């Protein structure tokens, strides 16, 4: 019995890692040239994004690991996307990591 208790005490702190369901993949996103204010518990700037085939900016991303954004440029990025069904508290359920900058285009706003 004491061996079972010892085993449970030893393994329990690591069990959350094994219970998480991680789904990893890659996708191409277009990043809008201007940041947008996103609100949750606090208001933070975030990227407006869309998948390459979409017409509307319907994805909002707070952080892309390894990406340096310059306001006024529209980017096409290949990103690693990880979905976590059981994120830790205050962590996003989807994380993004830069694989490659496919294109970077300076966008000049309309004067009228």
Provide a quick synopsis of the model.
With 112 residues, this protein is α+β, with helices and mostly antiparallel strands. 16% of the residues lie in helices and 51% in strands. It has one helix spanning 2-19, and strands at 22-39, 43-51, 59-61, 64-65, 73-84, 94-106.
Rg, Å, rounded: 19 Å
Task: Describe the strand arrangement of the main beta sheet, using strand numbers.
Answer: 3-2-1-5-6-4
Mean pLDDT equals 81
Helix content: 10-25%
How much strand? Answer: over 45%
Largest β sheet strand count, sense and barrel closure = 6 strands, mixed
The tally of strands reads 6
Give the overall shape: globular
Q: Please count the helical segments.
A: 1
**What class, by secondary structure content?**
alpha+beta
Number of discrete domains: 1
Distance between the termini: 78 Å
Q: Report the order of strands and helices.
A: HEEEEEE
Uncertain spans = 4-12, 14-19
Give short descriptive properties of this protein.
about 110 residues, 6-stranded mixed beta sheet, 1 helix, alpha+beta, about 15% helix, about 50% strand
């Amino acid at each position: 019995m004491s061996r079972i208790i010892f085993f449970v005490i030893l393994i329990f702190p690591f069990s959350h890692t094994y219970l998480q369901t991680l789904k990893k993949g890659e996708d191409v996103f277009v990043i809008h040239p201007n940041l947008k204010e996103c609100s949750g518990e606090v208001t933070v700037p975030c990227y407006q994004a869309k998948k390459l085939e979409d017409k509307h900016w319907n994805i909002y991303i707070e952080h892309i690991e390894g990406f340096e954004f310059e306001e006024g440029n529209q980017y096409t990025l290949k990103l690693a996307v990880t979905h976590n069904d059981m994120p830790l508290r205050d962590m996003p359920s989807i994380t993004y990591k830069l694989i490659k900058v496919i294109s970077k285009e300076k966008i000049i706003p309309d004067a009228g």
